[in-house]
Each structure stands twice: as C-alpha cells, then as structure tokens.
Write a structure and sequence with these properties.
Layout: H1 26-39, E1 46-48, E2 58-63, E3 66-79, E4 82-88, E5 91-100, E6 103-109, E7 115-121, H2 122-135, H3 146-158
Antiparallel strand pairs: 1-2, 2-3, 3-6, 4-5, 6-7
Length: 161
C-alpha cells in the first residue's frame, strides 16, 4: 500500500491516547498494510499507528527479520529488567539508555478478530513496551531521568523543522 510519513515530537497525535479498534473495516486493513510497509525497513523495530497520524490501537514490528502487527494490544505481564540504548522514529537522532522490563507479553487481536499474544525478552520485550507506551500517548523520553529528558527536549527544540 504505502510507506507513510513519521510524525515527530511535538506533534500532538503522539501525546493522545489511541482509541480501541471496534470494527475491522477496510480502512483498518489499509492501516495495517501501511504499518507493515512502513516498519519494513532496516533499523526499524516497531511503529505505532499514531506515529503515522492515526489514533487507533495498532502497531507493527520488525524484530530479527520477523514483521508483523497487533490490534488493540494490552500489556499483560512484564518481568526482569534491562537498561540499554533506546531510540524512536518520532524522536529522530536521539538515543538514550532507558530502563525497561526485560520480558513483556501483550495480548490483542489480528485482522480476523482472533486473539494473539506477542511476547519476548530483550529487544522484543523493549519494543512491546515502547509501542504500547506510544498507544497510551507516551514517548520514551518520558521514561528518562530528569536531566536527560531536559537535554533531549533542548535538542528537539533546537532542531525543530
């Protein structure tokens, strides 16, 4: 379908919690295809619908060569801890060490309305948490220590297009 433009901070769509998908319409099917097309690029681990301007609970992922999607994801479980570099397509050029759970599991549905579960450790766990945060209206900068968050916001303001 289409590779969509990525919205960047401070676009208000990134700070707005996304609505649940109640009906699988042709527009939702197009959205999923656009999410899959847009995330299928080296260096892209995940992409939420609001990052392409659509306030619906859906995201796509591209982890270790596996590309997929989930609708209406709900975080069911997290455990352990990891502290490592994290970046975001909506916060270009910035990478900060970010604390996350090592393991995460989300439950949602596919385009046929069937229940699906995505889970994983390491990068997969980080991506699941990162994308669910997006759908709740948060960006990873919100998880940074206060001084790092200030530094990131100064950089974003100085480099705003």
């Amino acid at each position: 379908m289409a590779i969509r433009e990525i919205r960047v901070v401070p676009d208000p769509v990134l700070r707005t919690p996304c609505d649940e998908i109640t009906t699988i319409t042709p527009a939702v099917r197009r959205l999923v295809q656009d999410l899959l097309d847009t995330v299928d690029d080296p260096g892209r681990a995940g992409l939420s619908a609001n990052q392409i301007g659509v306030s619906l609970r859906a995201f796509s992922y591209n982890i270790e060569g596996k590309v997929g999607y989930i609708l209406n994801p709900v975080m069911e479980e997290t455990s352990g801890e990891q502290y490592g570099d994290e970046g975001c397509l909506s916060v270009p050029d910035l990478w900060y060490k970010t604390r996350r759970a090592d393991y995460a599991r989300v439950r949602g549905i596919d385009l046929d309305g069937k229940a699906i579960v995505l889970e994983g450790h390491g990068l997969m766990g980080r991506m699941l948490q990162h994308e669910c945060d997006h759908l709740d209206g948060h960006v990873y900068l919100d998880r940074l220590e206060k001084e790092e968050r200030r530094e990131a916001m100064r950089y974003m303001r100085a480099h705003a297009k």
